[in-house]
Design brief:
Chain lengths: 218, 562
């Protein structure tokens, strides 16, 4: 990760990249640097800013897919590391790679802010192409995750493995709350009625977010 | 943190929001009807184990408060497939999340009363029977002490503390004044505390001075001291607690003296006081045929009112008897059976063949003029059911007749004279009130005509199914201990609204110190954990003081005087 390339906003958020495809429900953003995409389940934001001003207009998304591809679809990368000792050496020996490859991530739109007020449902219009995309601050994430009104959007999204995305989001969000396990229990209880007829699916999500699962950092 | 205005009603739909003031919130109403009771979904953090059938709850409706009772508890789940594919509750986290949400408890609450509301002015009307149900999502909480006293009243000169509602510390009060206006019943199978409860009610009537008591004390339990199944084998009777207000009459002086009691009056019954109606009552216990019992009326018309029994009993058998049988147009065998059985009974020592005794006058003098309470002990004759029935019936009929006369006189007067109400306590009541004799005996008349003449009954019985339906339906307040027999339960609950639910409550009573009380003197049915009776503190609560205290008081008084 190249730190100089990431632009820090006034509220301490990282600028990750720009929107290259936008619809009402989905956003695709290209990262400025190779391999600097936010992890699965991250909350990202396009537009301004910290919720204080009247002109704040922002769209929130949850990252559900990250991909790195060749910029020119007709030119596939080829294996280059036969004579190198480790993977990093491949990139050092071929500095052009960072220009020929790009990392993109897709986010599901789950909320927006208009005139400073946060809404956990779809925005009237998608952001423009080339809108800047930021990684949300802890405060932003805490505020957004304090209610799960957007969960139905996620649970019914036309994407692969929505449950994993939701579980990843909840785990990340729990880390910024004062009582992470309490947060997860309340979140689980809110999800329960949404998955009324699908106990096994609920079970799967709960297993992923259970504090007993490895990787939980509370 | 919660700056988001677009979020409806707070962040988390948790149980703690909108608690009814002072009460512990249980859940909210999700469905139901007035007939079947409303279904309450328990909050996620409430365990179904906390809520027991019979518990009182209050429900905050939109315009008024409802007061209800839990009649059922059930388990429910959100997903119909849950029973076959349960979630992975081996993980404590998952168990914590799904219990109360995906799988949850429900309770059924019967709304009994409403407090306040648009029609009542600041709750002045008191609780009214519920005629509708609270709306969806009304909050339900456990009833508070304030609710209980709003519904059942507080201690005053009419309300008597009988115990506590189930699982509550709050004192429950019974409106004694209202109670004695109707006939009342104490039921329960043997050993469940009928006598205990009756003693408590009698003490209540005494303490609140709501009426005079006349107790036909079959087993010598109420007068001086009674027995208890608990650690202390004897408990104080009414005379010990209220020595200046209670007179003990005895049929069996010897037995009374053996037990250390000096009876205020020894009751004797003159042969001439016995009437054919008394013989009717004895049909069952003396195993008399209908013909034989009816012959008493013919005998009375033949020999005259005061002499018929004496003449009949003195009659030799043989030809004379056959002649009499022909004369009266009855079977001579039936007649001699009647003579046989009656003469055995009439040889009992308290029967006086020579003259009448007018024990009734003595009883009335104590009850009416001195405002006292009379306990009539049967001594050894208590085990003789025929004797009990004969005496109780005979005395009661006369007392009732006198009350009737006095009431009519009072009605004719200027109204300044008010007759002191009388409560007559009888045990083994089904012997007096069974369908065969209920319409002939005085007890049937009293139960039916109720308070017209200021005389009411307190019937104590272990087989309420043996009591005539019509009488049963006239009983105002019923206090029922545990009953097993289906027929007895049916009899007690006949004509009571919501009897199906009460039935489940009744069959789950503990066998000691618990009773289901419902009827006239109570705004709604209630399971009572009866108050303690038998310890020094319990006696003190009736105003009883032991000798040491009395002596100290006397010394203080003496010191004040001089």
């Amino acid at each position: 990760m190249n730190d100089q390339a990431l632009t820090r906003s006034e509220s301490g958020e990282f600028r990750l990249g720009e929107v290259v495809e936008a619809s009402t429900t989905l956003l695709t953003a290209q990262c400025y640097e190779l391999y600097t995409a936010p992890p699965l389940g991250s909350l990202v934001r396009c537009g301004t800013s910290d919720g204080a001003g009247h002109n704040d207009d922002a769209v929130y998304g949850i990252v559900y897919e990250v991909s790195t591809n060749s910029i020119d679809p007709s030119r596939r990368p080829i294996a280059r590391g036969r004579d190198e000792d480790d993977e990093d050496s491949v990139y050092e020996a071929n500095p052009q790679l960072s220009r020929l490859l790009s990392t993109e991530f897709n986010a599901l739109v789950v909320g927006h802010r208009r005139d400073g007020t946060l809404y956990r449902w779809l925005a009237p219009l998608p952001p423009r192409i080339h809108s800047f995309v930021y990684d949300c601050s802890d405060d932003d994430l805490r505020e957004f995750s304090s209610a799960l009104d957007f969960a139905p959007i996620l649970l019914s999204a036309p994407i692969v493995a929505t449950d994993d995305v939701l579980a990843a989001f909840l785990k990340r969000a729990s880390a910024v709350h004062l009582d992470p396990s309490g947060f997860l229990v309340r979140a689980g209880r809110q999800l329960t009625p949404l998955l009324g007829g699908e106990v096994q699916r609920l079970n799967g999500i709960l297993r992923r977010i259970a504090p007993s699962q490895a990787g939980f950092t509370a | 943190m919660m700056t988001n205005g677009g979020n409806r009603g707070g962040a988390w739909p948790q149980g703690q929001v909108g608690d009814v003031a002072g009460a512990r919130s249980l859940g909210m109403i999700v469905s139901g009807s007035l007939a079947e009771g409303v279904v309450v979904r328990l909050d996620a953090d409430r365990s179904i184990e906390e809520v027991k059938v019979g518990t009182f709850v209050n429900i905050q409706g939109q315009h008024m408060r409802f007061f209800g009772v839990v009649t059922d508890a059930a388990l429910a789940s959100m997903d119909p497939a849950m029973p076959t594919q349960p979630p992975d509750v081996s993980d404590p986290f998952i168990a914590q999340v799904v219990s109360g949400t995906a799988a949850f408890g429900t309770i059924t609450v019967e709304p009994m009363l409403t407090i306040g509301g648009p029609d009542s002015i600041a709750g002045l009307d008191g609780p009214q029977p519920a005629r509708t149900v609270p709306p969806h999502f009304s909050r339900v909480g456990t009833a508070t002490d304030t609710d209980i006293s709003a519904v059942f009243g507080e201690e005053d000169d009419r309300h008597f503390w009988i115990g506590s509602p189930l699982d509550m510390e709050t004192r429950l009060y019974l409106n004694i004044e209202e109670m004695v206006k109707r006939s009342n019943g104490v039921f329960g199978k043997s050993g469940t505390g009928k006598t205990f409860l009756t003693r408590l009610l009698l003490a209540g009537i005494l303490q609140k001075d709501a009426a005079s008591n006349l107790v036909f004390d079959m087993h010598n339990e109420y007068g001086w001291q009674g027995t208890s199944e608990g650690a202390t084998s004897t408990v104080k009777g009414l005379k010990q607690l209220f020595p200046s207000k209670v007179a003990v009459f005895s049929l069996d002086e010897q037995s009374s003296r053996t037990r250390g009691i000096n009876p205020d009056y020894v009751v004797r019954i003159g042969l001439e006081e016995i009437e054919p109606e008394d013989v009717q009552m004895l049909r069952e216990s003396l195993n008399l045929s209908e013909v034989a019992a009816d012959a008493a009326y013919s005998l009375q018309s033949k020999f005259g009112a005061r002499r018929w029994l004496k003449s009949f009993l003195e009659m030799p058998g043989g030809e004379e008897m056959r002649e009499l049988a022909r004369d009266l147009n009855v079977n001579d065998r039936a007649l001699s059976t009647l003579q046989n059985r009656l003469s055995r009974l009439m040889r009992l020592p308290f029967i006086d063949a020579e003259r009448g005794h007018n024990s009734v006058n003595r009883i009335l003098d104590y009850v009416q003029n001195q405002g006292m309470h009379v306990v009539l002990e049967f001594g050894r004759y208590g085990s003789n059911l025929a004797a009990y029935i004969l005496v109780a019936n005979l005395l009661t009929r006369r007392i009732y007749a006198r009350y009737q006369q006095l009431t009519d006189e009072a009605a004719g007067g200027d109204g300044s004279q008010t007759l002191r109400p009388l409560v007559i306590t009888i045990e083994e009541a089904h012997k007096f009130l069974n369908p065969g004799v209920a319409d002939q005996t005085i007890f049937g008349t009293i139960a039916r005509e109720m308070r017209k003449y200021n005389v009411t009954l307190l019937v104590v019985d272990q087989r309420p199914s043996g009591i005539d339906d019509e009488i049963m339906s006239q009983i105002g307040t019923k206090l029922t201990c545990l009953l097993d027999s289906e027929r007895d339960v049916d009899a007690v609950l006949s004509g009571v609204s919501g009897s199906r639910k009460l039935r489940s409550v009744l069959s789950r009573l503990e066998s000691r110190q618990q009773a289901l009380a419902f009827g006239h003197a109570l705004p709604m049915p209630v399971v009572v954990q009866t108050r303690e009776y038998g310890s020094a503190e319990s006696y003190a609560s009736f105003g009883w003081r032991d000798e040491r205290e009395l002596r100290a008081q006397a010394e203080r008084d003496a010191a004040d005087l001089f």
